[in-house]
């Protein structure tokens, strides 16, 4: 064989090998699925910063359990700080949806921000998952196929306490909250069941958001001398209110009731001022299930602090994304199929298993809780599987 033929014989296999490598690399590249983008729109500054932090921690815990992957697709987070400012909601949502091409957007904490987000996302392809904000309209009059909630409606968290307060024998109550949507809806839901059970709201007090100078209102309450007081405050506002209530000498005299946000993620800072307070919520630290115990232990090990409700809601938003992506075998581009599958899911939450209502809000049990040694302890299940009435939702 001459040299020319020899070199020809060696070149052919090299050529074939090069072709095969190039071919398989391009096929692999074509088959490698795009990462799933998750926009995270939470308050990381301001009076609700602690809530935003807990939700993000819970979300990360759920994603980490699955190696930040679902159906072989990587999950990437893009975070923005809402500062709990409704005025910024639309611009931030557009950034996450149009610029960052987020498949899912998780947020927010504040109901005013939620309404702005829903208005912006309604005709988009992204799926919004609300991990806190309770505005009734989000899964009521403004419900949308691409909006789900892993938290609660305002109504769900306050309505049960009206009946509980009447059962405790209280007849005349003062209600108090920050003056914005969620607070006003909470007071209305409390009043709905309290009045139906024969009680009377003798005074309703609204404080500008996010102000925490409570003394003038507490002086007013002291002079009215109601049987009890029902409030909504959360985060830094809840810490300040509970401490002021104690410092002004009201705690021993006029029982303080709340929706559970009053003592969520705040008891370490509230100290003895929170001990004994009764609230209603869809979670309690002491829920006696292996799921809750494991969640709390893992959370503590990872973040070196105790889990709270906000962490649970973030964790469930993460679980929802993973289960939804797996249900459509990674093909999240077919939005109608994705939404259909999300509607069928059951979420194994630390609060207990739940499914979504037709309006995409959790159907869930509400606990009466008491603060004992800094823990929100179950007194009893107040209502089993409470479904928000979803007033005005046409889904
Ligand atoms: C809300 O604005 O919907 C909201 C904020 C903080 C809470 C609960 C609800 O703890």
Description:
The chain has 395 residues and is of the alpha/beta class. It folds into 2 domains: 36-152 and 287-356, 3-Layer(aba) Sandwich (Rossmann fold); 155-281, Response regulator (Rossmann fold, 3-Layer(aba) Sandwich), CATH 3.40.50.2300. 43% of the residues lie in helices and 22% in strands. It is built from 12 helices and 15 strands. The chain has helices at 3-31, 49-65, 89-99, 111-121, 154-167, 181-196, 215-224, 235-247, 267-270, 290-303, 309-327, 335-344, and strands at 36-42, 69-70, 73-81, 104-106, 127-130, 147-149, 172-178, 200-207, 228-232, 256-259, 278-281, 346-349, 352-356, 362-372, 375-386. The strands form 2 sheets. Strands 7, 8, 9, 10, 11, 12, 13, 14 and 15 form a 9-stranded mixed beta sheet that branches. Helix 4 links the parallel strand 4 (104-106) and strand 5 (127-130). Helix 2 (49-65) packs parallel to helix 11, helix 3 crosses helix 4 (111-121) and helix 11 (309-327) packs across helix 12. The longest helix has 29 residues, at 3-31. The N and C termini lie far apart (79 Å). P-hydroxybenzoic acid binds at residues 51, 109-111, 132-135, 182, 234, 261.
